[in-house]
Design a protein that fits this description.
globular, Alpha-Beta Plaits, alpha+beta, 97 residues, 25% helix
Length: 97
């Protein structure tokens, strides 16, 4: 199993929700009002007057064979408007209870 964390500008909320529904991903945890800045070209998303944009983050645990589908959909969302920002990160899940 794999953990996938998707961090995205809140403008992508509907697209990320659709991605989860389309791929049949039912279990996840969501964080709202996530602040940060992309490592390469990202501008700060701090929810302030100077930097008003804000992010969300979702983490889900999926079977290994679903990872490429999720990453492909994230890549397509990013291609719609790469200035808005969305990234996905994958970790191995060694154990769970």
């Amino acid at each position: 199993m794999k953990a996938i964390m998707i961090i995205y500008n809140q403008a992508h909320t509907e697209r990320v929700e659709y991605l989860m529904d389309k791929l049949g991903i039912k279990g996840y945890s969501l964080w709202e009002n996530v602040q940060g800045r992309g490592s390469n070209t990202g501008v700060p998303h701090l929810g302030t007057h100077a930097w008003p944009e804000i992010n969300k983050s979702v983490i889900t645990i999926v079977e290994d064979d679903l990872v490429d589908d999720v990453l492909d959909k994230v890549k397509k969302i990013d291609a719609i408007n790469n200035d808005v920002g969305i990234r996905a990160f994958v970790w191995d899940v060694l154990k769970s209870v």
